[in-house]
């Protein structure tokens, strides 16, 4: 079992590195020009699979030490620190001065040294963010983290949101907009991009800016950054709404079925995906004898009952059911 | 007793419920009122808003806290009930969302107090012990357990963090809030010391009363470097006259003689002088006013904190502290005169066990403080940017979750203890049972500590005399005896005191203030 996890880890690590390499665009065999390079972690080499040339040797293996059975051991035996992350303004590579006034042996230090450390600590804290742009980033990233934490958004999406914000900052899109607004739209965009959409209403509930501003800023940055966002698939909303309404799997699959068949007939175009999903769930709940009122569904999906009624009518007509 | 009855009795001690019962009782008590106690203690989160001119202060009032049953939050945002087996297989944490009532209040200076927002909000996730009251499988029948992939014979009593099962090791500590008299040596002389680990709400302070080689009493306690004269301290606490001090320590003529020596050496005669003297010790080189303020603060904050109680006035607490110090002095003198033996630290009456609930309470307290700091920071920042202050936008639930999960996952507890949580030993079924009923002494295993490792007569019926590892941990890691009964501390001390008072005990602080005025306040 250990063997397999290790392999998995190595594989993912190798994959990541390959991705990084491809970004740099230098990874092809200097001898035969093939891009079929293989990383052999057993020998710490990068080998060309076609001609056999060793492109790189003595690579550093960032993985943990041999034999680590659980999380704790893996951490202890790891030869490197935490991976860099985009969610921190310095990518998590800061030096921090510990607040404990102890030397390397754990002994207390003299009062003179202590006040010196105090000063160093203060200045370290001050110069960590070197300019306004950096401060801006620090503030925005902590906002993203705060909102993501309130929404229960996973780590990977926070990473994406941070990258979007960083790009916006680099292209000078923040000017004239509030930091919070751009941060919120970056998070909204990241959620959509990663296929776990949150509606603007949900996002604005935890954000410190208004819905209107988020929408406006989002449109602007997605256009400027060329995010090419496709309309959200209403099916993405189904599991969440269903679990909030405490509906069974059966209703979920029925709702998905309704969405699929009706969307094929072009009913979805131009309609709000949340409303569409809500109507399908409402219809499915009726069909499966687990009726929820329009009010209940509307509350969860944060749409109006009118929207649900309209979409519902269209959907059952298209399905050929008469409710 | 009949043979059959005996058999039934002994069998019931081996029933499933009994094996990890101490864990369940302790953890359930924590969920039921321990968590609420911590929140009530905290009461409110103050902010620095309002320090500036024309700005009204803002703070957060904390209300009821509750945990639901374990749930998992999927990436798409849906939330579903989680069963232990799923948590193990998916490498996720078996934890339940915790909700707390919070209200942001502004005003109080010029404007009227105004509640800006009040909501019950999710503040984080609490790891739930498998088999506890809040566990999703509690009350399930064997068939139902098998249905969801659970082992009906599994005793529970552990947590599941990131898919790994972790037990919190019961730890054996010296009893707090108890006077322990013992011999010590200082500069080659034998001296007598009375010790008390005074503990209240997670704050622990060691108070020492020493009788040095001149026969003078000295007291040391946190935040005062070195030691101060016993007489000075009791005078600062309001026990002024010579007669009263002597009377409070002991009536024994020989001890009175010792006390008189001490009084002769005293530098101060009145309470004011004593507090001034103390002020010079705790804040030397500062202004006079600050010295006094600091001295009073130190007395009320760091000296014998366990004597504080809600609803008891500071004045009364101080005099109780003086009486308590007199008891400690008496213990010192009695030891010096050979009237009593040194207290046995290995005696089980002088030990208290910290079970999972107590450990979780410590953890929750620091986690809540961390959350409070974060809320304060978020509030100040939102206020600075003139945003509307709402509860939902200032609480980062990750803060609390992280602080609760990380120590259980790594075993690095608050207060620098490590190895508190351990991976459940699944070598075989017996291994699990033994592991859940194991307890650990905090003494270092690299030092001999021969007495602590020895089997003590008072362990009879409580600790298994033979189950202990070989090697460096021998005698420091122990296991419960099968028929061990673990009693819990009193939840409501007031009830206990009322009861004692009705039985004729006089001078209990906060209970019988009106009935006793001149009579002795000794216990």
Description:
Chain A: One of its GO terms (biological process) is DNA-templated transcription initiation. Chain A: GO terms for molecular function: DNA-binding transcription factor activity; TBP-class protein binding; zinc ion binding. The complex is a heterodimer of chains A (323) and B (523). Chain A is built from 13 helices and 3 strands. Chain A is mainly alpha-helical. Among the domains of chain A are: 130-223, Cyclin A, domain 1; 232-317, Orthogonal Bundle (Cyclin A, domain 1), CATH 1.10.472.10. Chain A has a 3-stranded antiparallel β-sheet, with no helix packed on it. The longest helix of chain A is centred in the first third of the chain and has 23 residues, at 2-24. Mean pLDDT of chain A is 80; it is low at 1-6 and 13-25. Chain B is an alpha+beta fold and 523 residues long. Helix content of chain B is 37%, strand content 20%. Chain B has 16 helices and 18 strands. In chain B, strands 10-11-12-13-14 form a 5-stranded antiparallel β-sheet. A 4-stranded antiparallel β-sheet of chain B has the order 1-2-5-6. A 4-stranded mixed β-sheet of chain B has the order 15-9-17-18. Chain B is globular, with a radius of gyration of 27 Å. Residues 513-523 of chain B have low confidence and may be disordered. The A-B interface holds A 70-72, 75, 139, 145-146, 149-152, 154, 157, 180, 196, 198, 205-208, 236, 239-244 and B 73-80, 162, 164, 378, 381-382, 385, 387-388, 392-393, 395-399, 409-411, 423.
Largest sheet of chain B: 5 strands, antiparallel
Average pLDDT taken over every residue of chain A: 80
| Helical amount of chain A | 55-70%
* Beta strands of chain A, count: 3
How would a textbook summarize the main sheet of chain A?
Answer: 3 strands, antiparallel
Question: Unreliable stretches of chain A, pLDDT < 50, 5 or more residues?
Answer: 1-6, 13-25
Quick check: average pLDDT of chain B?
85
- Main interface: chain pair and counts: A-B, 27 and 27 residues
Strand order of the largest sheet of chain B: 10-11-12-13-14
The whole-angstrom Rg of chain A is 26 Å
Strand order of the largest sheet of chain A: 1-2-3
